[in-house]
Amino acid sequence: MNRDNLLNLVEKIILKAKWFPIDLSQISKEVAKKINTQKINRISSTIDILLQTNDIVIFNDNGEYFHKQNIIAIKDKIILLIEKYHNKYPHKKGITNSELKKLLSSNKKKKKKRVISPDLFQSILQNLTSENLIFYNLNFICLNGFVQNGIDEKQQKIDDFIFNYIKKKKFTRILISNIVQEQNTNIKTVLYSLKILNKNNLIIKINDSIYADVDSLIFLKKKIFDFIKSNSSIHVKEIAELANTSRRTISPVADYLDQIKFTKRVEDKRILY
Known about the structure:
Structural class: mainly alpha
Shape: flat
Largest sheet: 3 strands, antiparallel
Helix content: 55-70%
Order of helices and strands: HEHHEEHHHEEHHHEEHEHHEE
């Protein structure tokens, strides 16, 4: 096979890997399926040519490659999906990371979902942010310059109050009647706020009456993880001490961590799942 034919073949192989970067060994295997086994140095030099012509990029330090056409296509798709989301939900700040990834992976024409590499997804979001095309943080993603419309200021005030209330109280039981009275609202509005805050990954529902803000729960999980790594297991009393609260308060949280398979209960103690 002459150099031009090998160049075209290697480029097609990299171009075909639409959702995951591909490394030299994977490229070599695909080349071997099409033609007689090529020497690695021939394929390496072919990849160098594609890098020099700016057709492909090195994705990371592991020597994985990705075609620029695919990067452009994914970026365009992400922008289009966010724009459609804004049009559908103008009152929302933006789309969540998980929602966007789900939409990006869906394909109505094919039963099999296209699942993008998590590292590639994050890298493209960072790239779009650096190009000032999107605003991106841990809670939501929106187009740069997007302005929320149709926000109910009273509802927003209640949302903020409940979030701060949960953050201050941490893992204690939520008294909806107290919130209703303090905010001069109704139970339906409070339940709606809890649902929205939970959906936007700002709070976590432990059970029907206990919620926790995400940061507090992440911090507690890290403490529990470090404790178990050092002591092999942890008692609910020790979890309460780490959370600076009572055993009675923390017990439902410990059960929740079992349910999400972060910990596993063995008799009266917990170990990492």
